[in-house]
Amino acid sequence: MSALGTVVSTAVTPLVADATTPTNYEDLSFFGRDPWWLILIKVVAVFAFLVVTVLMAILFERKIVGYMQQRIGPNRTGPWGMLQSLADGVKLMLKEDIIPTAADKIVFILAPLIATIPAFLAIAVVPFGPANNQVSIFGHRTPLQLTDLPVAILYVLAATSIGIYGIVLAGWASGSTYPLLGALRSTAQMISYEIAMSLSFVAVFIYAGTMSTSGIVNSQHSWWNCLPLLPSFVIYVVSMVGETNRAPFDLPEAEGELVGGFHTEYSSIKFALFFLAEYINMVTVSSLAVLMFLGGWHAPWGVQSVWHGANSGWWPVMWYVIKLVVFMLFFFWLRATLPRLRYDQFMKLGWKVLIPSSLVWLLAVAIVRTLKNQGDLNRSHLIYILGPVIAVALVAWIISEVRYRQTSELEKAEEAAAAAKPFDPMGGGFPVPPLPGQTMPAYTPRRPRAALVGALMESAEPQELEAGDPDV
């Protein structure tokens, strides 16, 4: 890891240290000039944007999932069911707020707030438009972004990682077994997939030469990062679904195993806060995907060539929202189509597939960027770099395929051996269903069997009495 860190630092340093190079996008001089009342207006606007987006997301998720599953979605509350999210919110706020007797009351109340507040903080550094093309609000020129930092992406990761404490504390403070199991699952899940997500970000840092959100978006003026960094984009898309506990990775809330997960004992507004945090986190990770890999507020390539003012004024907000909606629809599509994974499969995907793939890809990106900074990059170097990477990936795929086939053959042999044995449904002390290939024994009616047992006992009683049985 120390060698990898040396390569990464060598790849990033030339771009960040030299502010005169044309590839340096870390210009934060546009921020910190707004008066306090304008900052307050922007904070309220960002907060309203998140709340309205969550309300619309809940409504359209239920409608889209209903359409995909060929059933009727919300259609009663308001015209075409448009007020269903508002009705659900009012219902949850008016329901009885119950605190279990065994719960730690203070922690139980604070846990939903700890999960929700960091979700709002992460959106503060998301750019809705270019910082150098400011808009006028009540006569003051201001960028379409609340603020930015030289390490803005690290701030987002730090803010979103705090939310896991709310989930852990909710499960622990409930004083119940199933919420605690759900909280432990969620902890392992967040740690596993946040590592892969962070590694996919490092490749973007190396490629863009900055960790500020506005700088990363500015660096994609010609090519979006989803093309040159396609493996990082794929890894991030998978990791963001696992990070937000959404289907098919919603294992901390598995109803068939954990009743309801970490929020089983919650009701009323506390229950609503957890779902609010979940949907805001969906907006956050979708926004990160847009600004890290899809050009952020940049208009699509064909639109930029035809319409030269597409990236000026308030129009960048529209491009950002359209890309955000596309990613939200991706979440809904996954929920409607894919079944939930087993927990061991889910953890194997994170630790044995995503993280090793991220490390190999990150090493390749760092080497390519270093050679490009030194001016020594040509096609022969690309062959030398990509050749071993493709070879390692091919060997890993062959090994995994051979192991999968061996495991499948072993399972088939075990099933055949189990089918050859006579099946006893009460062999383990409790009734079990038959495995594939096994058949249930012939069923004996309850009453004839009881009559037979009674007859045997009547015929055995005189002999036992004559023998002087002490138990009779």
Automatic annotation (TrEMBL):
PANTHER family: NADH DEHYDROGENASE SUBUNIT 1 (PTHR11432), NADH-UBIQUINONE OXIDOREDUCTASE CHAIN 1 (PTHR11432:SF3). It is a multi-pass membrane protein. The gene is nuoH. NDH-1 is composed of 14 different subunits. Subunits NuoA, H, J, K, L, M, N constitute the membrane sector of the complex. It is found in: Cell membrane; Membrane. NDH-1 shuttles electrons from NADH, via FMN and iron-sulfur (Fe-S) centers, to quinones in the respiratory chain. The immediate electron acceptor for the enzyme in this species is believed to be ubiquinone. Couples the redox reaction to proton translocation (for every two electrons transferred, four hydrogen ions are translocated across the cytoplasmic membrane), and thus conserves the redox energy in a proton gradient. This subunit may bind ubiquinone. Keywords: Cell membrane, Membrane, NAD, Oxidoreductase, Quinone, Translocase, Transmembrane, Transmembrane helix, Ubiquinone. One of its GO terms (biological process) is aerobic respiration. It comes from the Bacteria. It comes from Catenulispora acidiphila (strain DSM 44928 / JCM 14897 / NBRC 102108 / NRRL B-24433 / ID139908). The chain crosses the membrane at residues 35-60, 106-129, 149-170, 191-210, 222-241, 271-297, 317-337, 349-369, 381-399. It is an enzyme of class 7 (translocase). One of its GO terms (molecular function) is oxidoreductase activity, acting on NAD(P)H, quinone or similar compound as acceptor. Its EC number is 7.1.1.-. This is NADH-quinone oxidoreductase subunit H. InterPro entries: NADH_UbQ_OxRdtase_su1/FPO, NADH_UbQ_OxRdtase_su1_CS. Belongs to the complex I subunit 1 family. It catalyses: a quinone + NADH + 5 H(+)(in) = a quinol + NAD(+) + 4 H(+)(out). GO terms for cellular component: plasma membrane. The keyword NAD applies. Pfam families: NADHdh.
